Amino acid sequence: MEIIYKNLQENEISRELFRHFVRHQTVVKCRRKENGKWIIKDDPFIDDWSEADYKFLVSCLRNTAATGGLVYAAFCEGVLKGFVSVEPKLFGGNHRYLDLSSIHVSEDMRGKGVGTALFRAAKEWAKAHGAKKLYISAHSAVESQAFYHKMGCAEAAVYNQSHVETEPYDCQLECKVCEDDS
Questions:
Q1: What is the pLDDT of residue 25?
Q2: Is 54 helix (H, G, I), strand (E, B) or coil?
Q3: Which of 42, 131, 142, 182 is deepest in the core (most CB within 10 A)?
Q4: Pairing of strands 133-138, 97-105
Q5: How confident is the model at residue 27, as a pLDDT?
Q6: DSSP run (H or E) holding 34
Q7: Cβ atoms within 10 A of the Cβ of 106, count?
Q8: Is the keyword Endoplasmic reticulum in the record (predicted)?
Q9: Strand pairing report for 154-155 and 79-86
Q10: Which pLDDT score is estimated for 36?
């Protein structure tokens, strides 16, 4: 099973691209910050995307591509199996963050290295575009958090308040794009 990775242009991003993409995630435990401390707590739910969510996602990804950001995707037998997006505008002052706005792997391909390859590509792109760190407003599911920690992420030094307001249960993370950066 060969995985093909490629940059996507604005005109390649449509609802049809996601026809066989399976977002489904059964969440049982979440990592949350409460009273200044990180805890693991039961919070069972099923995360999936509605048609409205797909419409919003397509709009966001098209905008990212159109404004000079990265939309990088993984395909198996011509079918989308994962994607990552990084916004083009630096923020955070001396932290020089670029926003990793999305990273998702289809349920049928999780645990096969697709997410790792996408994340590494995002780091390389961010480094080439002047960032010191990627900023990630990350899903709080313990499985998602385990992936981010494996990738070298830690709690963000500076929180992006718009992300906190939009997704208050997300974990605000950062990841150095160069090993020698502080």
A1: 93
A2: helix
A3: 131
A4: parallel
A5: 93
A6: strand 25-34
A7: 20
A8: no
A9: unpaired
A10: 87
Report d(CA 78, CA 89) in Å as an integer. Answer: 31
Burial, 50: exposed, middle or buried (Cβ in 10 Å; 0-12, 13-18, 19+)? exposed
Per-residue CA distances from 46 to 50, 57, 105 (Å):
12, 18, 16
In one-letter notation, the amino acid at residue 74 is A
CA distance 26 to 11: 32
Give dist(CA 142, CA 30) in Å, integer.
5
The residue count of the chain comes to 182
Domain range 3-176, CATH class: alpha beta
Neighbours of 8 (CB within 10 A): 19
Neighbouring C-beta atoms of residue 113, cutoff 10 Å: 13
- At position 101, the amino acid (one-letter code) is S
Backbone angles phi, psi at 111, to 5 degrees: 85, 10
Give CA–CA dist 155/180, Å, rounded.
18
Instruction: Measure the CA–CA gap between 156 and 79, rounded to whole angstroms.
Output: 34
The phi, psi pair for 20, rounded to 5°, reads -110, 15
pLDDT averages per 10-residue partition of the chain, 182 residues: 96 97 94 91 92 97 98 97 98 94 97 97 98 96 96 95 93 89 49
